[in-house]
Amino acid sequence: MSYELIALFMFAAMMALLLTGQRVFGVIGAVAVIAALPLWGTGGVEIAFTQSIKLMKWYPLLTLPMFIFMGYMLSESRIADDLYRMFHVWFGPVPGGLAIGTIFLMVVISAMNGLSVAGMAIGATIALPELLRRNYDKVMITGVIQGGSSLGILIPPSVVLVLYGMIARQPVSQLWLAGVFPGLLMAGLFILYIFVRCQLQPHLGPPLPKDERDAITWKERIGLLRAGFLPFMIFFLMNGLFLMGYTSLVESSAVGALASMAAAFIKGRLNREVMENVMRKTLGISCMFMWIILAALCFGAVFDGLGAVRAIENFFLGQLGLEPWHVLILMQLSFLLMGTFLDDTAMLVIVAPLYVPLVKILGFDLVWYGILYTITCQIAYMTPPFGYNLFLMRAMAPPEIKLRHIYQSVIPFVAVMLLTLVIVMMFPEIALWLPEQFRGQLRG
Amino acid sequence: MRFLESYIRKVDAFNRRVGRFAMYLIFALMGVLFWSSVTKYAGSPALWTLEFAQFIMVGYYLLGGAYSMQMGDHVRMDLIYGMWSPRRKAAIDSVTVLFLIFYLCVLLYGGISSTTYAIEWGERAHSVWRPYMWPVKVIAVIGILLMLLQTIAELFRDILFLRGVSVNHASEAAL
Q1: Residue B53: its chain A contacts at CB < 8 A?
Q2: N or C end of chain A: smaller count of CB under 10 Å?
Q3: Mutate which of B27, B71, B95, B103 to test chain A, going by most A C-beta atoms within 10 A?
Q4: Top-confidence residue, A103 or A60
Q5: First-last CA distance in chain A
Q6: Which of B19, B75, B79 is nearest residue A288 as measured by Cβ atoms?
């Protein structure tokens, strides 16, 4: 059997087994070792365990449990309640203003957190009931929260970019910096969309009534700005110290985790129950990620050994006569297509090891591709029928929001995300300018 | 039958205890990393923190693995799986879980061979601190072994469930 055929067979076997619903890490690992044994004999036996040592030596991965811990801590600490009220009061008078304020809230949460779960939880439990009470359109605000919370993986810190960095062997600090402007661009486009739509159809997002607005004094308004203090401190302790070169990436994540605990303490939420919850979930999610990465590394190592990537490149460039750009666009399209059907975590670790070497051979910048990859992941998280965010949303949202509304709501936001993807593809400087300024200065 | 049941209960209880211990390692990890930034700020960076943090991480996810499996935290692709009845889920699982067991066996075999090598030759890391490698490898092997025992327990649990006995089965209510 030729190596290409083995590679194809591995991929098909993995898909088939994944469909049976066995645990994802088990399927990926099993297919990898079953392929490795006949290929390399006894030498192939070692390959699975060797990956755990490789995984251990990969320093930035230490940030993973820290950020997961931090995310759960922040959503349990209720730090967002005051923050939401602040945006609420300041943006209330504009049509659609509360929805715009919610996007701002999501940007702030994203800047403190590396996954979209925290933003989703805060959005669905705090913002959503309030927006419904104000007669905002159900479908629009459901989309606002899903779109907004997905910024969590693009705006640094980002766990997805940490994983990508591991596979693409790129410095995480560069990737994070590259995520800043595309993230803000996407948030800006979300806001623009909400603003324009609410100008055209004011009933979707009615402004706060005049008497209610007058009831809020200026003193109160200024006072509410203080709600931003705690999040800003956390943001500064984590990103500020890192960018100024005082702490390394991993140290920053530990500082951030400690700061989130301090914030919960200040809010009087650091009790036994919260601690138990946060620690339990952190262990569960970290283990889930780590075991999948362990298996995926093994899969990737076998795939590398087969030289499958060269074969794919040869097929596209040589036999089909395509330009590198065409291949890149085809890759993004296939990624999007897979994203609608595949489990997102699995996709993250399966697709990246396949695509990243190909992108490198084609001669594209891997930091820039990391951002394209993350945006595509964001979209995949949100596209029906299977998206992590969709299910989370259904689990967390109030009962009057039906699954139909959730599916409907993502359409315009996915369109805005696609637009961002195209803009960043056409103008790589948006992503690459900021990391260029810091190149070679940061550790980790 | 009685044997299967007592096996499940014993493995569950033991792994739960180990997992609860691993859960607290996150604070050790935080502490070590924090100490690392403090000593760096004080001008004499500690040399051992990086590797020690990595060792803790290995303990955290490998020793915690079995407990997280008990809790059902490992994702499955539920495109079709989600639509099945609890009985069918258990039936299919008890076949496909053999793949998982095979993977863990290969992982364990590789781990034992790598650990024996590390002990025999006194393998050390290539760094300034130069720690011995065998302690972390022993921890890894224990973690993988516990994961294997837990996976077998999950298989037994499904088999008993199919025979109408639930030992803390996830879909107990369906009986």
Answers
A1: 62, 250
A2: N
A3: B103
A4: A103
A5: 42
A6: B75
State whether B81 and A49 contact (CB < 8 Å). Answer: no
Is A282 an 8 Å CB contact of chain B? Answer: yes
Residue A66 sits at the chain B interface (C-beta within 8 Å):
yes
Per-residue b or e along A148-181, where b marks 16 or more CB atoms closer than 10 Å to that residue's CB: bbbbbbbbbbbbbbbbbbbbbebbbbbbbbbbbb
Question: Mean of the pLDDT values across residues A390-408?
Answer: 78
Looking at residue B173, its pLDDT comes to 46
- How many residues are there in chain B? 175
- Cα distance between residue A305 and residue A43, in whole Å: 13
Amino acid at B172: E
Structure confidence at residue A223 (pLDDT):
76
The shortest CB-CB distance from B41 to any of A246, A282, A386 is to: A246
**Residue A253 with chain B: CB contacts under 8 Å:** 33
Contact A168, A63 (CB under 8 A): no
Length of chain A: 444
Residues contacting A255, CB < 8 A, separation 6+: A237, A238, A241, A247, B34, B37
Cα distance between residue B110 and residue A262, in whole Å? 42
- Which comes out higher in pLDDT, residue A102 or A305? A102
Which phi and psi (to 5°) does residue B117 adopt?
A: -60, -45
**Option in A26, A62, A255 nearest B99 (CB):** A26
Question: Do A162 and A388 meet the contact criterion of CB atoms below 8 Å apart?
Answer: no
What pLDDT digit, counting tens, does each position of A136-177 carry? 888 898 899 989 988 988 988 888 888 888 888 888 888 989
Per CB-CB distance under 8 Å, the chain A contacts of B97 are 22, 26
Is B25 within 8 Å of A279 (Cβ atoms)? no
More confident residue, A307 or A84: A84
Report, in angstroms and rounded to the nearest whole number, the Rg of chain B calculated over CA atoms: 20
Nearest Cα residue to A26 out of A291, A393, A402: A291
Percent of chain B with pLDDT over 90: 68
Q: Write b or e for each residue in A258-272: b if 16 or more Cβ atoms lie within 10 A of its Cβ, otherwise e.
A: bbbbbbbeeeebbee
Task: Inspect the interface and report whether the beta carbons of A254 and B65 lie closer than 8 Å.
Answer: no
> Cα dihedral sign for A311, A317, A318, A322?
positive
Spatial contact of A145 and A191, defined as CB atoms under 8 Å apart: no
Instruction: Count CA within 13 A, CB hemisphere, residue A339.
Output: 24
Distance between terminal CA atoms of chain B?
18
Cα–Cα distances (Å) from B170 to A215, A260, B71, B140, in that order, read 52, 33, 9, 28
Phi (first) and psi of residue A268, to 5 degrees: 70, 30
Q: Is A251 on the interface with B (CB under 8 A)?
A: yes
Indicate the pTM of the whole model: 0.85
Please name the amino acid found at residue A110: S
Tokens 């036994």: give the residue: A272
Kindly report the nearest CA distance between residue A17 and chain B, in angstroms: 8
Q: Is A248 on the interface with B (CB under 8 A)?
A: yes
Which of residues A244 and B164 earns the better pLDDT score? B164
